Amino acid sequence: MLTQKQLVQILGNPESYNIEITTSTTNMDKFCQAICAFSNDLPGDDKSGYLIIGAEDNGKLSGLRVDDGLLLKMTNIRTDGNILPQPVMTVERFVLEGGDLLVVEVKPSEFPPVRYRGRIWVRIGPRKSIASEAEEKILMERRISNIRTFDAMPCIGTTFADIDINLVRSEFLPKAVASEILADDKRPLEEQLASLGFFDLRYNCPTNGCIILFGGNPGRYFPGAYVQYVRFKGVDRAGEIINEHKFGNNLCHDLIKIDAFVETSVSQKRPIPISVLREETVANYPYWATRELLMNAIMHRDYETNAPIQFYEYDDRIEIQNPGGLYGKVSPENFPNVSDYRNPFIAEAMKILGYVNRFSRGVYRVQKELTENGNEKAEFDFSFVTAFRVIEKASKRYYDAGFGAERNPQETHKKPTRNPQETPQNIRERIIYEIQKNPAISGRELEALLGRTSNSIKHYLLQMNKEGIISHEGPTKGGRWVVLKK
């Protein structure tokens, strides 16, 4: 970052291709365009760009007072997902005699072109503009020369015939590139994909990430590129296999299936009565949290290994294990506060497709949703050198309400003994019978007489009240029940 002395010198001579000065504090489009342009570093001199807020074009201070809200707003630009790949930037406040300055230092990206909402912005002298095709080609070639990750390397031996072109055109490109730009882009699909990091023009073949995302048969080149779901009966792998499924198609095709599978087959939602007239929905495993953990495994896994992602469900928990341990700057000590990407282009595509909501905060949201649903917080296991595992335990509230008892045998002894021949109609008839005998009967008395849990009794009373079979008169405590019809 600049020193205060260097900053004063810049204000004395502000005209430069890597300096943008503004008095605005609200024009987020302008800020993001400048950050995008600095990241692209079209001249290629590897110099940082500086967005300076709080001064006139001539360098005179505007008298701005930089508060924490403005600092936070500028810092959030890095992770809000609008600029991809993520910019490398730092934000700092300088307090000068004539007012404050907020300075955003932007490092040149190693993986240009960088896009802001699908558009490539570059710096031409002291102004910025959308890149021309020739300028985009320069940035694309620079990206190729900086290839360091597996997903951006050429998949030697593949051709355009190995990817689902219709899927790319219909599902991916319209989301990755602004519609008006895509309509005017007359380049071959190879060059369009190359500009996004999914085709290698030197070897004239798709990248590894392209095959994984859009390949017609990705397993042919990456045998471990699939998700293996297994539902075991019991609490370990010695139990009987109740259900299994393999998601082995390309990610663009499978992500929507995995999303639906988690929501409909894994996350079981049930209404739990809170009072006689109110109920709340609870799940054994909350959908969004489970989905996020699985999507993170897909995004961060090591695709060079032949091992799949293990998505294993037991009676009391879910375990998700993906090949590849913590990556890059991430360590057990700084997780999840620090993030790094083993597969930045796959991560970028998943963001574009809508399966990663926002970088760097998913784990916090997962833990919050688990806690609110009655689950324990997810446990992250870093003990494996070549793998990463997360454990999500089933919701205690879900099982305490009487759901899923057959899947949680450890809890069976806590529940009242019931007649196995008892049906919902029998229970309703017994409740009516007890109310007629004692209109002032309490919920606890009904629990004892019928051998049901508190939530079960509340459930039946709530439903019967809704259907007009019974009604409660007077206060919750001390009132009386009335049978309206049998």
UniProtKB/TrEMBL annotation:
This is Predicted transcriptional regulator containing an HTH domain and an uncharacterized domain shared with the mammalian protein Schlafen. It comes from Alistipes shahii WAL 8301. Its EC number is 3.6.1.-. Keywords: Hydrolase. It is an enzyme of class 3 (hydrolase). It comes from the Bacteria. Residues 15-129 form the Schlafen AlbA-2 domain. Residues 402-426 are annotated as: Disordered. GO terms for molecular function: hydrolase activity. The keyword Glycoprotein does not apply. It holds the Pfam family HATPase_c_4.
